[in-house]
Amino acid sequence: xxxxxxxxxxxxxxxxxxxxxxxxxxxxxxxxxxxxxxxxxxxxxxxxxxxxxxxxxxxxxxxxxxxxxxxxxxxxxxxxxxxxxxxxxxxxxxxxxxxxxxxxxxxxxxxxxxxxxxxxxxxxxxxxxxxxxxxxxxxxxxxxxxxxxxxxxxxxxxxxxxxxxxxxxxxxxxxxxxxxxxxxxxxxxxxxxxxxxxxxxxxxxxxxxxxxxxxxxxxxxxxxxxxxxxxxxxxxxxxxxxxxxxxxxxxxxxxxxxxxxxxxxxxxxxxxxxxxxxxxxxxxxxxxxxxxxxxxxxxxxxxxxxxxxxxxxxxxxxxxxxxxxxxxxxxxxxxxxxxxxxxxxxxxxxxxxxxxxxxxxxxxxxxxxxxxxxxxxxxxxxxxxxxxxxxxxxxxxxxxxxxxxxxxxxxxxxxxxxxxxxxxxxxxxxxxxxxxxxxxxxxxxxxxxxxxxxxxxxx
Amino acid sequence: xxxxxxxxxxxxxxxxxxxxxxxxxxxxxxxxxxxxxxxxxxxxxxxxxxxxxxxxxxxxxxxxxxxxxxxxxxxxxxxxxxxxxxxxxxxxxxxxxxxxxxxxxxxxxxxxxxxxxxxxxxxxxxxxxxxxxxxxxxxxxxxxxxxxxxxxxxxxxxxxxxxxxxxxxxxxxxxxxxxxxxxxxxxxxxxxxxxxxxxxxxxxxxxxxxxxxxxxxxxxxxxxxxxxxxxxxxxxxxxxxxxxxxxxxxxxxxxxxxxxxxxxxxxxxxxxxxxxxxxxxxxxxxxxxxxxxxxxxxxxxxxxxxxxxxxxxxxxxxxxxxxxxxxxxxxxxxxxxxxxxxxxxxxxxxxxxxxxxxxxxxxxxxxxxxxxxxxxxxxxxxxxxxxxxxxxxxxxxxxxxxxxxxxxxxxxxxxxxxxxxxxxxxxxxxxxxxxxxxxxxxxxxxxxxxxxxxxxxxx
Amino acid sequence: xxxxxxxxxxxxxxxxxxxxxxxxxxxxxxxxxxxxxxxxxxxxxxxxxxxxxxxxxxxxxxxxxxxxxxxxxxxxxxxxxxxxxxxxxxxxxxxxxxxxxxxxxxxxxxxxxxxxxxxxxxxxxxxxxxxxxxxxxxxxxxxxxxxxxxxxxxxxxxxxxxxxxxxxxxxxxxxxxxxxxxxxxxxxxxxxxxxxxxxxxxxxxxxxxxxxxxxxxxxxxxxxxxxxxxxxxxxxxxxxxxxxxxxxxxxxxxxxxxxxxxxxxxxxxxxxxxxxxxxxxxxxxxxxxxxxxxxxxxxxxxxxxxxxxxxxxxxxxxxxxxxxxxxxxxxxxxxxxxxxxxxxxxxxxxxxxxxxxxxxxxxxxxxxxxxxxxxxxxxxxxxxxxxxxxxxxxxxxxxxxxxxxxxxxxxxxxxxxxxxxxxxxxxxxxxxxxxxxxxxxxxxxxxxxxxxxxxxxxx
Amino acid sequence: xxxxxxxxxxxxxxxxxxxxxxxxxxxxxxxxxxxxxxxxxxxxxxxxxxxxxxxxxxxxxxxxxxxxxxxxxxxxxxxxxxxxxxxxxxxxxxxxxxxxxxxxxxxxxxxxxxxxxxxxxxxxxxxxxxxxxxxxxxxxxxxxxxxxxxxxxxxxxxxxxxxxxxxxxxxxxxxxxxxxxxxxxxxxxxxxxxxxxxxxxxxxxxxxxxxxxxxxxxxxxxxxxxxxxxxxxxxxxxxxxxxxxxxxxxxxxxxxxxxxxxxxxxxxxxxxxxxxxxxxxxxxxxxxxxxxxxxxxxxxxxxxxxxxxxxxxxxxxxxxxxxxxxxxxxxxxxxxxxxxxxxxxxxxxxxxxxxxxxxxxxxxxxxxxxxxxxxxxxxxxxxxxxxxxxxxxxxxxxxxxxxxxxxxxxxxxxxxxxxxxxxxxxxxxxxxxxxxxxxxxxxxxxxxxxxxxxxxxxx
Lengths: 459, 459, 459, 459
Prior knowledge:
The first copy, chain A, has 459 residues and is α+β, with helices and mostly antiparallel strands. Chain A is built from 16 helices and 23 strands.
């Protein structure tokens, strides 16, 4: 699928490694697919202070050179943001300065009781410097530090127990790095050892890139404190229960990441096989929509015996900021990002594998483009169930109105996008692909694993 | 003198004028001489929210285009900062977000009890986002807003009474603009009417540039609240007593500004006349060191009858960031900024008028350069008394050690810089030039008009 | 393969279409893979003059906005260049101004008698403004315009007959666009109709992107003159014989391009099938090296029945300019661009499909990385014959010394890169994949289809 | 006067000095007032080749760092250009590459027979790469090098004899630097010795900045060849006769430059004295319009005994690119660049000294601004005669229509600009100030010292 779903952010942290700040730069480069709006790195300066550098843009723009200097620990963040969302002030990490010890935070996810907490904090005199719900962590920690003291596991436990929603959170102090994951485990967070130190990151691929091998997931509800004494694990909630976001497997994560023991590419390939089993099709070739539909397409091809062809080619140089042509050309937006290969397509019956359908407009343009390239038949197969409900945990689907499957039947959607046939993977098929039943599938089923507070109104 | 003294910042605010944010851009351009490190503008968006834009660099870099949109009030800030001083986080205005109403602050000056206040605020759980003492205003206001409420004159009065030191402070809320000046009146702040609205700025020249004519100074200890109901004046302290920074007249301010009723150029020209009366000299020509020495040179020439010549020319295109040549040229740093006019200087006896001597290195290079250009005699005349003490109110002279006059006699300084004769204006002469005795002359005399708290140790 | 082979440039032209200059911008975006160093567009201004805009960097950097204005014809160029190669002066198109009519040129390819021609032109008083051999076209045309006159097919024919080597050349005048291809047909050039006008481009994918459908190749030795009267075809040489560069199919061109009737992806997939037939292998999975090895990997998998896995993932955000980490991490350069998927690789026997081996260093790092990720066996299969000879027609392989296969046997190369087995496609297999025997395979076989002049010495 | 007159360019060259390219950077910084549109440096690379770096923008933008490397000779250029004038292609130096030796040129001035020469060269097959008349030097030299050979004094003599108009020209080859000045000597060019090498530059101030002391002017019609053998002087024309551009003294040149033995500040000051003698006035203060009116104001004040005040202050931070405010403020354009000092002006009778009046619009805004600041009377005194004729030698006054004094009498101009009285310096007075009668005063008198060819028509 080509960029209609988005999740907010990725985090990366290092403790006890020489050149920690620059290692975070490397790690963020491998999380860049999770957010391109801005990024930052907070690091110890080796003299008891924290330093923060952040700006809008890609990692390669904000940190065009290696980050020199700094001590042996650092955290970083890549941000996905909606247009005009607050500028550089909303770019993380956030740095909170205090006389008795500064700290920095980096957060991936979305809080569901943010409004309630901000109201309460404001009454207590708290001031905010951004419009991001991620600043709530700092404000609650600051509030808990009245009378002095420093960040600690008990304080973090008290704070995290007040927060509902999705968070994979890093907190950096002068002498410790805390890696925390919400008790539902919506967002991934992996941790591993590098030499005498430790590395944490939103996806395992970023740890691999940093040279880390023995990698485990931070567990739902777990707080891992990393310090000169090694790691110390505790759980802030006894109510922890896993409901990993299914869209991480389906769309967000890189295929080379392992999430909770399951490789993302393997998941997708398996979902492609099941998709064929559930929705077989006679056709001449299988075409995956780059990049996220490719793995499922390999699976579909393998299961069906229908040959796989690269009949859709992505243009790597057409960035999100690409300017549309001035004139009335017969080019649609999808055409700038994907090129159909006429000589492969002409006269052929196509099974087109995509990961999801959001508004339907992209699929409609895609089908039209393939027909113009001469396709005889177009059978759309989607490797996930229909999206019917908004997400409050960090996936950027703001309202039910935008979701075509919320108001139309599968048959109607098929007609709208112009495909000969259309089918989706079943919820059961998705769980089978994952080899697990504890996924958050709220956006498909409407069953939210947490209270959703005031969001119920605009549900 | 060429840039060894610096003061932190200038502020500018507008209330009740269409295009307020862009008018602040214009005003800041006329305060740019007070700070070139960074700048920002906070403005109402016309819908109850405040918007902040800020970055490092000149006004023309940060705001390369007119600032469009925004409501009818705004404040801005230009920052002078030492190298590497905290990056964009220290650039003002600061924006403090609250559920019951955000506010922004812009501050010119230096607090003397900043350490004590930050310590106290930290104990209460306050978090800071910069390393600037200017954030204390926001933190104290936030602390005073516990339990709700909004910025008000009584709250500001309570807060300002806790703060010692120099401040000209602007506070912007959704519906009011507060212009405050410390009770000693160290830093200038002027206010005037424009159409149905109001404009405030660090120097009167910036108000003139904005088209404002009937201008008065905000008084020491005064809080001017500007709202839809017009202006309302109150005083937060009964102990107000003026001690305007003498260096504002001598060096910082633009010659076209009037500070507390006295034009800066006129002050300087008069000081040049008195300088001649106190320290006459036989010479062929008077040379002022651009830019701040020119007015005094005109006065010296007029009083002495010795012709004035532009025998030192400033290179407008050599910025602070000019890269020194790679090779071992016989060029000193002063030579890149000032060019001596050989044909005017050769064989002549010169009276060179400068505004001050800090370390003595610049004067030494200047004298050498003039000798190489053929000067027969060089008589240095300084239009202020010798600098012997550090400033804690915002002038960037951090320690006594740097001040050549703190350890050497005038005769020794003269010998060090290589002049034939050297003399300084007396303290009495300085007061006479100002037509007032209530100037802060602590850097000359060591008599500080306020408690200086812990600074006494490194005095 | 990851970027050790490079070809110089792509060209794109438009005649008789509204918004021609901006359409060239779109086209160049789809040729960006052929050159990232610089780009430019020359276009008619609608008033009889030509305008040139060009700079170093990607199309999206040089033309961050739509190119507005201009007339109905334009040509453009993307340049691949070696480091420090002459700066912006070497970026094309070149504009040649004359009183009786200016013209612009854009050239893809490399001339073999450039030295001889420059020598001759210099003697006649010609001046050059770049160090690029592409300026020779302009100089020869200028020389032919002595005494007046304008660009014409007869003049072009005379000029092109003096030039040996590879060129796909566009020449733009105020009222015509000439599309020329050298008589050996080394470099691709396609042409098609768009509305009442015409579009030409280095690869058919760029024409498709511009909305052109009925596309043909400009033929070896052909000059197509496009004017208000339509197109007019002539041949400058009777000796035309095709020897299309095999590397275009193997590595340079986009998989969605058709070159002389053969789709590039289809070619590569077929070469993968033949590669299996020639060099079978027992293994658990087939892995293609992104991006150019993927198509062949699909073919190899299909032919062998060994499942295809995306066990190597490319990092889209690691640009050519990525800064290596400061410290001594255990990261090699390949690791920053490609990530192995441990959970897919561990304990498995791999067939790794790459398109070519140049120096061997990249393959060696790749093999090491796969072993570290747990691969049990690594069988490298290369979908082209060993590279043993330099190219003088535009592929950036400057000397035999750099080519590992020039001095080592296949077995020795296999040992050097650390693979369990290594085999290459045969020359016969390559021709079979192309369905044609008239490819230039000089870099494999050493049989150059043209005289190579003075290059013989450093051969 | 504030920027309505402009001259094209400044040149700077170095031969036989270590770090020549970077020394040119320094020199150009001191010629920046002569052109801000673009700049460049061509230098020997120490291995027989010339390297060119150039771009649009100030020296500090194009060369933000010291220019490292390069051999011991270099030339540079700063360009003044009209808006949109051809982009970077028109920025000099121009580099002309030839097999038997490249050369580079840098030119200050304007040719009067450019059209005729380009026509002739075009007929001979010459191609141009810019729309600048300065490329003619290269084309003529190239034409003279047919059949081989190198740049030499005889060749330059032949070429320069074909060219009419204004030029101070530098030509750099691998082993020599030629400094040439047209036979009328319109534009300045100075030369001096630095260590074992030589430095040439448009104004002596740039040579002083580079550390050169014994400076002489290149003479009208002179070619100075500088090589490893020292300097060699010849004259290309026996008809040489001086007519130095009067505007160089009046407006363009820096006050610290000496032109043909006369210091510019001294000239201006003297012209101020004569201006008083010719046009006395009763007033309270003398005000010079910064920067170019200041020297004359000092002279006027000295001669009249009327005190000089800095009642107009220039805003150093308002660049040419300053964006005007969005809204309808009562600010005129002059107001952004110059600030009147109300407290000095109020109720006073002013003599305002400016160097020239072009269109009259700026003076009119200035007078209005001074009246608004409270001036009781305004007596404008212009330190040059009325501008009535276009210049064909490099001063950017394109047509008679723009010149207010071409169509109005002095009295009418005075009424238009709103001054109480207005007078100009006489032509005789100007010559007296210069101590010479051989100035080019064509723009005042209409007596052009050369044939003006086809320009007569639009005269």
